[in-house]
Every structure is written in structure tokens, then in C-alpha cells.
Design goal:
The complex is a heterodimer.
Chain A: H1 4-8, H2 16-48, E1 51-52, E2 59-60, H3 68-77, H4 82-89, H5 91-124, H6 130-138, H7 145-156, H8 161-168, H9 182-206, H10 210-218, H11 223-251, H12 255-260, H13 268-277, H14 282-313
Antiparallel strand pairs in A: 1-2
Helix pairs in contact in A: 2-14, 4-14, 5-9, 5-11, 9-11, 10-11, 11-14, 13-14
Chain B: E1 42-51, E2 54-64, E3 69-73, H1 80-88, E4 95-100, E5 103-104, E6 115-118, H2 130-140, H3 145-158, H4 174-186, E7 192-196, H5 204-221, E8 224-229, H6 232-238, E9 241-246, E10 249-254, H7 256-261, H8 266-271, E11 276-286, E12 289-293, E13 301-304, E14 319-324, E15 330-332, E16 343-353, E17 357-364, E18 369-375, E19 390-394, E20 400-404
Parallel strand pairs in B: 3-8, 3-9, 6-7, 7-8
Antiparallel strand pairs in B: 1-2, 1-4, 4-5, 9-10, 11-12, 11-14, 12-13, 14-20, 15-19, 16-17, 16-19, 17-18
Helix pairs in contact in B: 2-3, 2-4, 3-4
The chains are: A mainly alpha, B alpha+beta.
């Protein structure tokens, strides 16, 4: 993680040449972000304030280029937040949002519980084994995400591999209904996002100084306690990074609930998709997208605040 | 070279004649190792530690006494750190045993041993304040909260870090971190304090100051200190006794003066301080004076074997070396009077001016280089010695030490 305040501090006034050089370096990423993030966002934001229409595209833009600045000013007064209001009126959207939050939070928690031991074992493995283990952790990425989630249908369906295996060893008499439930969505999310949780935790555990644990033991602390007092707090940045890497995409996840969740699992990503493509209500779908963005932005800002607090403590 | 350490035990600059008694007079009358009735606090008994085929520590016997400031000295990889880590419990002896206060430590995990260690890297917990770092060990022992507060405050005062309790380790300078590490190890009042290269990360000035602070602290607390270091100045300045280690074995164990004045092996002689070795074959002896004949153009020298207390250790005809310290060799610009022992003619090859000392490298007829050092006691010299001057070096038989091959 970078510590912005520390690195840029103390060289405020550079000469013109170095300033120009800095812009050459910083410029391209800014341009990229502006073109492919800010601009699309503005388009969506405009759409969310527009009215639905039977047209192509299927909405009447709130602002148009031909209006000119005077026209835009005019329209600013007449802006309608109807789309956002209807999100509140219709319980479906709030339900979908809360379900998504719940499912993403649960998946994150399960991922920490599963991912931490895996990362710990990887970090404790002999040095020459570690690169192999890291490769194994990212190996699933070599296959398409869609295909891997699809494969879970074959495992989880009533006549699938899991039920067959359980029946064969006599644990169950009739097949369990796992597919098309929230459990299937959880399984899919945990499976898909595991590397994103394992790798940051591994990175923080791997650089942990082993003599700190020796020091703890030397001061009278048994190894299991040293784990809680030293290893866990020092790997927290990794856990936090993993949690955000997992929670944010899981919140808006579409593929997993669509393939594994059936019709009863309503997540915000699917709602958004169906508003866009089934109902063709682009303005409403855009409003959903904006709300989702704001919901995600909260924890994002929190995440940003953590390394900054660290940096301040380090001053 | 040793700087002028200023402590009483800085190795003597006197003439060779008085070497047996006066040189390196002991700092205080503390020498339990000379008392056969004294019980050692720490006892290593035939301790061996193997890593695969490598014997990191090889059959070490060592007694360390209470209130002693003991240094394990040696080049990196000599096994000194392993020897210390076995006492802390981080390594297990492959053979032999280690006793602390008469109790065998085998099977006792590090967190149950009444010793504390100051790590070379300091190993301060980066997520805890200075106070929390120091209090950590006391908390593990379940000491009452109010007592923890008092003891932490007291030990921070001792290491002159009052007012720094709230800081994080990364807000401290290197010297301050070193003090926190020391405080954290001291606060539990261990029977033995282990210090692994305690001053290694400090710059030279701070290192010298801290050496004396550590010595004062050790006397004040009456604690037993076991220090691992590769720095001979550090060991010479601080230690009551030094064990010089070489390839897993103890090459010599003694007071700094013993180690410097009468090294037991070539390894010790060349690791501690500067030395010139005159190689040769034992030709004969008259009383305690042994004559060593150089081969070819190499000079022949006389050496008093009584100096080392190892008289009669070498037979006539044995290959030996005579080790002479640079400050015990006299440099003359005119031939010394006849009858002066160990006179060798040479040419000034190199001069190194160190401020307090000047080191001359004298080239002999056989091409060998002899180091001679002279104190720059007076500001003006009538006939300065310069490059390519013909000079004569000489030293008393008692100035040299006879080393068997």
C-alpha cells in the first residue's frame, strides 16, 4: 500500500521542467481514468436523471449538446429525481440491495475464515515451495470465470456430482436442493473470489518478520498467543485489502447469482441487468447503478483512510 | 586497531617486560572464574549443534558466572549466535546440555526460560507503542496493571526514554529503538540478559557511548550479560571475559588482556587486533627464551615463552609462529646498539596516519611486511620517518607470543 503523504512530502516546489516531467508521468493515467471512468459515469448519471421513452436509445436525455450552456442551466432547475424516488417506492430494489449486502458480507466473512489459514500455510511453507503455491492459487484464472461458475451447476444440481456422492456414501436418501438457492450463490462467490482473499493476506504474512514471534516467545508468550497478539494484528492490512477486493465485486455480482441463484435470489446486480435488458428502462437501471456506486464508495473511502492513518502515525 | 578506549582494561601500551603482571590491569577485583569453588550461573556441557552435516557449534564447554559481562566474539558463521540462541531456547543442542543455575534447560520452551534476549534487529512490535512493547513481557506473566505501569516507567527512565512511551517504533531514531529493545528485555529482570549484536546497527560515535552505558547499566543492575558480537573493540571494551569462537569451537576464553596479550592460536591473534607473524622453526631454548629460525631470508627471532604461561609446549624442530603486536615493536632510524635482541633491518613501505597513532608498514629483506605503530605523543618530530627510509625494528623477547602451528 502506498503512503501518499510520506512520499510526496518535502518537495513542494519543483522547477518547471520537473513539473512538466511529473505531468508526463501522471497525465496518461489521468487521461485513461477520465476517458473510461469519469466520462461513462457522467453518461450514466445523465441517464439516471432522464425520462424513459419509447425511442432509440430508450430515453429522453435530460441534457443535450444542442441546448447550449443557457439551456443546461434552464434544465438544471427542472431536473427530476423521479427514478431515484421510484427506487424507494418499490420495495423490490431496497430488498435486492439489502440481500446483496447480506450475501456479500457473509461471503467476505467466510472467505476470511477459509482464506486466512490457506494464506498462513502458504506463507509458512518452505521458501522454494511458495512460488508454486502462489501459482496454484491463481491457476483457476486460466479458465474462463463463466465456465467455472457454469461447472458448479453440474456439481450442485439435484442429480449432480455432490448429491450423487452424498447418496453413494449414504448420508442422504433424497437429493438436496442446493442449486437455485442462496447457499449455491454463497458457494459460487466463495469459490470465485478465494484467490482475491488469499493473495493479499499471503503478501502481508509473507513479509512478517519471524523474529517478532521469537521476541514474543522470549518475553513469555506461548506460540498460540503470539499468533493472536502479533501475527493477526500485523496481517490486518492484508485481511482488510482482501475483504474490500472481495466485498465490492461480490456486492454487484451478476454472473454467480444469475447462474446459481435461480429466480428467488434477488441481488442488485441482477436487478440492474433486468432493468436494462428485460424492461429496457435505462434511466431506472442507471439510477440503480448510481445507488450501487454510492453504497460501494462508502467502504472504498474507509479503505483509503486506513493507510493514511498508518502514515500519519508514522510521522 | 583498538581506539583509545579509556577504560582501565584497554590493553597495555607498556613495554614487554612488565607484560606478565601490569598490562591490562583488571577493571575491578571481580574474577569468579579464578575461584575453583565458585558455581557458574550458566554451564554449557559438551554442547554440539549440527545443521545437516555442518557443526555450527562443536563440543563447547563454557562456564559463565553471575554478574559477569561475557562476550562471545568471532567472525560471522563461527557459531556464536547459535550458542546464544540455544540458551534462549530457539535452537536445541544436538548433543550436550545447558544448565542455568544448576538446572538443565532441555525441553523448556523459550517462553518459560528465565532469560531475555535483545535481538539484533531489535524485533520491536511495530503495531504497539513503546510502552506496550516494554509492558508486553510483564503482561504475559500476569503482573498487576499498576505494577506494570510503575516498572515500565522505571525502566524507560533507566534507558533515558521518559516521555517517549506513546510513540510507535517507527517514530524513533535507531538509537532510541535500541534503547526500547534493551528496556523491553530488562524489564522482566531476567537471570541472564542476552544481547545479539546490541550495537551493530548504531553509528560509530553512538556505539562507543552506548558501550559505556551498557557497562554502567550492567554494574548498576547486577545482572549477568551475555553479548554476541563480531566487533573486537566492542568486546574488549565491555567484557569481563571474552570467548573467542572459530568454526564452532571456542578458540580461547579469557579476559580481554589475556586474549590480546597472549592469544592462544593464530586465529585469535589475527582476529583480535593487528599482529605480525614471524614464521620459523624452533631451533633451541635457553631457559624460557626460545629461538626461532626463519627460513631463507626470513629473520630469526627470540621469544620468551613464559609470557603466555604455556612454557615447554613446543618441541625443538616444530614449525611455529611468533606473533608480535605493532605497538610492542620499536622503530629506529639508526642501528640499535649491539646486543639488542630481535633487530631486523627493513624499508618503510607504507605510512598510515591515524591521528593518535601512526602505523608503519616495514618491508623486510624477504619481502615480509611488519606492522609497527607509534603514538603521536609530540607535535614536532626532528627527523620524521618517510617512505623508503632504511629503518631498524626491534622488540623484546617478551613482546612476542609463541604460537604452535
Amino acid at each position: 500500500m502506498t503512503r501518499p503523504g510520506v512520499e510526496t512530502g518535502g518537495r513542494g516546489s519543483g522547477d518547471d521542467a520537473s513539473r512538466r516531467g511529473r505531468w508526463l508521468v501522471v497525465g496518461p493515467p489521468f487521461l485513461w481514468l477520465g476517458l473510461f471512468f469519469l466520462l461513462p459515469f457522467l453518461i450514466v448519471a445523465r441517464m439516471s436523471l432522464s425520462e424513459r421513452a419509447t425511442a432509440r436509445p430508450p430515453y429522453r436525455p435530460a441534457f443535450a449538446w444542442e441546448d447550449g450552456p443557457a439551456g443546461w442551466w434552464d434544465k438544471l432547475g427542472q431536473l427530476s429525481l423521479d427514478n431515484f424516488v421510484s427506487l424507494l417506492d418499490e420495495p423490490l430494489y431496497l430488498d435486492a440491495l439489502f440481500t446483496s449486502l447480506r450475501i456479500a458480507a457473509t461471503a467476505t466473512l467466510i472467505l476470511i475464515l477459509i482464506g486466512y489459514p490457506i494464506a498462513y500455510a502458504m506463507a509458512r511453507a518452505p521458501g522454494r515451495l511458495r512460488p508454486i503455491l502462489v501459482t496454484l492459487a491463481i491457476l483457476p484464472f486460466w479458465t474462463s470465470f463463466l465456465i467455472r461458475v457454469y461447472a458448479w451447476i453440474g456439481i450442485l444440481k439435484p442429480e449432480g456430482l455432490l448429491n450423487a456422492a452424498l447418496a453413494a456414501i449414504g448420508v442422504i436418501d433424497e437429493p438436496l436442493q442446493i442449486l437455485d438457492t442462496e447457499i449455491a450463490v454463497q458457494i459460487g462467490l466463495v469459490y470465485s473470489y478465494l484467490p482475491f482473499m488469499v493473495l493479499p493476506i499471503y503478501a502481508s504474512l509473507e513479509k512478517l518478520d519471524g523474529t517478532l514471534l521469537e521476541a514474543a516467545q522470549d518475553l513469555g508468550c506461548p506460540p498460540w498467543k503470539a499468533f493472536w497478539l502479533v501475527t493477526v494484528p500485523l496481517s490486518m492490512p492484508g485481511v482488510l485489502a482482501g475483504a474490500f477486493l472481495v466485498f465490492i465485486p461480490a456486492l454487484g455480482e451478476f454472473v454467480v447469482p444469475d447462474l446459481l441463484g435461480g429466480s428467488e435470489t434477488l441481488m442488485i446486480g441482477r436487478t440492474l441487468w433486468s432493468e436494462f435488458f428485460s424492461n429496457r428502462d435505462w434511466p431506472l437501471a442507471s439510477a440503480v447503478a448510481i445507488v450501487l456506486l454510492v453504497v460501494i464508495l462508502g467502504p472504498m473511502l474507509l479503505w483509503r483512510a486506513v493507510p493514511q492513518r498508518d502514515a500519519e502515525a508514522g510521522r | 586497531m583498538m581506539g583509545d578506549a579509556g577504560a582501565g582494561n584497554a590493553a597495555g601500551r607498556g613495554t614487554g617486560r612488565t607484560a606478565t603482571q601490569a598490562v591490562g590491569s583488571v577493571r575491578r577485583s571481580f574474577a569468579p572464574w579464578t575461584d575453583p569453588g565458585a558455581k557458574p550461573l550458566i554451564r554449557y556441557e559438551k554442547v554440539t549443534r549440527r545443521f545437516g552435516d555442518v557443526r555450527a557449534v562443536d563440543g563447547v564447554d563454557l562456564d559463565i558466572y553471575e554478574r559477569e559481562f561475557f562476550c562471545l566474539l568471532g567472525p560471522s558463521g563461527c557459531g556464536k549466535t547459535t550458542l546464544m540462541r540455544m540458551l534462549a531456547g530457539f535452537e536445541t543442542p544436538t548433543e550436550g546440555r545447558i544448565l542455568l543455575g544448576g538446572v538443565d534447560l532441555a525441553g523448556l520452551p523459550p517462553y518459560r526460560r528465565p532469560v531475555n534476549m535483545m535481538f539484533q534487529s531489535y524485533a520491536l512490535f511495530p503495531h504497539m507503542s513503546v510502552e506496550a512493547n516494554v509492558a508486553f513481557g510483564l503482561k504475559q506473566d500476569g503482573v498487576a496493571r499498576s505494577e506494570i505501569q510503575d516498572r515500565v516507567a522505571a525502566v524507560l527512565k533507566l534507558v533515558q526514554l521518559e516521555g517517549y512511551g506513546r510513540r510507535r517504533p517507527d517514530q524513533l531514531s535507531g538509537g532510541q529503538r535500541q534503547r526500547v529493545a534493551l528496556a523491553r528485555a530488562l524489564v522482566k529482570r531476567p537471570k541472564v540478559l542476552l544481547l545479539d549484536e546490541p550495537l551493530g546497527a548504531l553509528d560509530k560515535k553512538l556505539r562507543e557511548e552506548t558501550q559505556f552505558e551498557l557497562m554502567d547499566l550492567q554494574v548498576e543492575l547486577g545482572m549477568t550479560f551475555l553479548v554476541v558480537t563480531h566487533d573486537q573493540d566492542e568486546a574488549m571494551t565491555m567484557a569481563d571475559r571474552i570467548a573467542m569462537m572459530d568454526r564452532g569451537r571456542i578458540a580461547q576464553c579469557g579476559t580481554p588482556a589475556e586474549i590480546y596479550e597472549t592469544p592462544a592460536t593464530r586465529g585469535v591473534a589475527s582476529f583480535v587486533g593487528d599482529v605480525t607473524m614471524f614464521e620459523g622453526v624452533v631451533e633451541g631454548r635457553a631457559g624460557s627464551i626460545v629461538s626461532v629460525a626463519g627460513e631463507g631470508a626470513a629473520p630469526s627471532v627470540l621469544v620468551d615463552e613464559a609470557v603466555s604461561g604455556r612454557a615447554g609446549a613446543v618441541a625443538v624442530g616444530a614449525r611455529v609462529a611468533v606473533a608480535v603486536r605493532p605497538e610492542k615493536i620499536t622503530l629506529a632510524q639508526d642501528p640499535p646498539p649491539p646486543g639488542t635482541p630481535n633487530v631486523i633491518e627493513g624499508e618503510v613501505w607504507d605510512i598510515g596516519y591515524l591521528g593518535d597513532w601512526t602505523v608503519y608498514r616495514i618491508r623486510l629483506a624477504d619481502g615480509a611486511i611488519v606492522r609497527v605503530s607509534r603514538a603521536n605523543a609530540s607535535r614536532f618530530v626532528e627527523r620524521p620517518i618517510t617512505w623508503e627510509d632504511r629503518v631498524w625494528i626491534h622488540f623484546a623477547p617478551a613482546a612476542g607470543v609463541l604460537l604452535a602451528e
